[in-house]
Design brief:
Blueprint (H helix, E strand, L loop, with lengths): L6 E13 L6 H9 L3 E14 L4 E5 L6 H8 L7 E6 L8 H5 L2 E5 L11 H11 L4 H15 L14 H13 L5 E5 L7 H18 L2 E5 L3 H7 L2 E6 L2 E7 H8 L2 E8 L11 E7 L2 E7 L5 H11 L2 E8 L2 H18 L1
Parallel strand pairs: 3-7, 3-8, 5-6, 6-7
Antiparallel strand pairs: 1-2, 1-4, 8-9, 10-12, 10-13, 11-12
């Protein structure tokens, strides 16, 4: 029997009434004060998708696309104007307290740790908030301490921790009550490369081993590629793409990077659709427009000039693929 979705959104709509001051001088300012002019702004427009238990999904879109509004609806903070929303079988706006015991949240720019106290004290407080029995609390804390390497920093005041250490504690705090779904908003913002790698590995492992569903929003495509297996892209409150990351690449992949290490010191490759990115001694980096030329044609042309010692073929970065998707959506909007 197929398991019920962890998240199910059907035709979700949410709009806000925003004040728009009338332009002009003194009279306009008086009118704005006594009779404010408001405009309806649609944040989410008939959005539908579902997420299966244990899935790791990236929720992507430009600023103002409706990501934060959708997450607030999923968390029960906002009431939808229309459509239906269910998270772990519950209606978030109506059953918010019950839902809070089943979900966890990690916000890269907000903290649930007490700044002046060590993480252990925050974990103890959260154990009371989530009504975790003493024995179960100790078991969960011991398991998370071992998994996240928190032993040396449990009794260090949060103000003395590095950003990477604090984020490990933030994620542990969000997982302390064993939630079935975790909402993550920019969990690696501001971290250095090594700290990002640690956080990404921890999230991936927690989901894979314990079946925790992840819904992650991030502008860092490294988070998306290292943690998630599926991506949902929205734009102006509407669904643009929903599918595996690999399929998104194939659909919008327009170029490839080809690096050739040759026996000849220089290669002269002047082919339609091929741009020389850099050319050094015995090394040539090319960008191939796939709608004009194929990688095979470029390799054949290079071999015709010189034996090839090595070569590397790389896809365009994921952020370039997503930008192409946004550009297509903007073009469609302007035409309509």
């Amino acid at each position: 029997m197929r398991a019920a979705p962890a998240v199910e959104i059907t035709d979700l709509c949410k709009a806000f009434h925003v004040r728009r001051p009338r332009p002009g001088g003194f009279v306009a300012r008086v009118q704005n004060f006594f009779r404010p002019h408001t405009q309806t702004v649609t944040a989410v427009d008939r959005l539908s998708f579902s997420i299966a238990p244990g899935e790791r999904v990236a929720f992507v879109g430009p600023n103002g696309a409706g990501k934060s509004t959708t997450l607030k609806v999923l968390a029960g903070i906002l009431q939808p104007d229309a459509g239906s929303v269910r998270v772990l079988g519950l209606e978030p706006a109506r059953q918010r307290r019950e839902l809070a015991f089943r979900v966890g949240t990690v916000f890269g720019q907000r903290s649930q740790l007490w700044y002046q106290l060590p993480p252990r004290d925050t974990f103890a407080l959260l154990g009371r908030v989530y009504e975790i029995a003493g024995t179960e609390h100790r078991r969960r804390l011991d398991a998370l301490t071992a998994a996240f390497g928190l032993g040396p920093i449990l009794d260090t005041p949060v103000r003395q921790l590095s950003l990477g250490e604090r984020m490990r504690c933030e994620i542990a705090a969000s997982l302390l009550h064993a939630p079935r779904i975790l909402f993550l908003d920019e969990p690696t913002i501001g971290l250095d490369v090594s700290a990002k790698a640690v956080i990404r590995e921890l999230l991936h492992t927690e989901s894979a081993q314990n079946g925790v569903t992840l819904l992650l929003t991030s502008h860092d495509t490294g988070d998306i590629e290292r943690v998630c297996e599926r991506v949902i892209v929205i734009h102006r409150g509407r669904l643009l793409w929903d599918g595996p990351i690999a399929h998104l690449r194939r659909r919008y992949l327009t170029t490839k990077r080809l690096t050739v290490w040759s026996e000849a010191e220089r290669l002269e490759l002047q082919l339609p659709g091929v741009r020389v990115v850099s050319s050094d001694a015995f090394r040539t980096e090319l960008e191939v427009a796939l709608d004009v030329a194929s990688v095979g044609q470029v390799i054949d042309a290079a071999l015709a000039q010189s034996p090839v010692r090595d070569l590397a073929v790389e896809d365009a970065p994921l952020d370039a693929v997503i930008r192409a998707l946004y550009a297509e959506a903007e073009a469609g909007s302007s035409e309509s």
